[in-house]
Amino acid sequence: MKVITWLRSFTRSLVDIEGIKIKIPAIASKVIRNSILDGSYEAPELKLVKSRLSQEDIVMEVGTGLGLLSVYCAKQIGDDKVFTFEANPALEEAIKTNYQLNQVAPKLEMALVGDRPGFTTFYVGKNFWSNSIFNKAKGAKPITVTIVSFNDRVKEIKGASQFCNEY
Q1: Contact status, residue 85 vs residue 109, Cβ threshold 8 Å
Q2: Which of 14, 37, 62, 137 could form a disulfide with 125 if both were Cys (CB 3.0 to 4.6 A apart)?
Q3: Which residues are paired to 109 by β-bridges?
Q4: Closest residue by Cα to residue 59 from 43, 80, 33
């Protein structure tokens, strides 16, 4: 019975988390796959966002993962008010797929957010939620990623939101 249950969960790749469709990518580790299937994936974060998000908000998400939170935010306040950043290029296809499944298009930028623009080493591990600029995961592979300035992006987002509010 355990083998059948495991096989069923292993082959199930499209799930619904509180009305949000998430396609589990092939690159998801067993730990991440199981957290998605059991409903614990980003559950505390989603609960917090649901309790605090309002129509007047503008969201800047750092670390998109699979796009669950940015999908939720875009559905609630609109694509034009959600700006999201992911450093791991291997997640781009999964994020875009989840956006398409949910018919949203928040502003996604594949870059690491830092104090100044440039490039840095980013360590990609088995479980993407532990990817970091610090080599802390056993077996993590170093890749070079683009850094965008946090302050520059906040200024751009503020400018875009003021423009939207005027028209």
Answers
A1: yes
A2: 137
A3: 85
A4: 80
Q: Phi then psi for 73, rounded to 5 degrees?
A: -60, -45
- For residue 16, the cross-strand partners are 21
Chain segment 67-112, per-residue pLDDT in tens: 999 999 999 999 999 999 999 999 999 999 999 999 999 999 999 9
- What is the spatial order of strands in the sheet that 141-149 belongs to? 112-114, 141-149, 118-124
Residues 55-64 as b or e (16 or more Cβ within 10 Å = b): eeebbebebb
Distance from CA of residue 163 to its chain's centroid?
26
Report residue 156 as tokens: 């751009």
Q: For strands 20-23 and 14-17, give the pairing.
A: antiparallel
pTM above 0.70, yes or no: yes
CB 153 within 8 A of CB 113: yes
Q: Which run of H or of E encompasses 69?
A: helix 68-77
Q: What is the CA radius of gyration of the chain?
A: 17
Yes or no: say if 94 and 72 are a contact pair by the CB < 8 Å rule: no
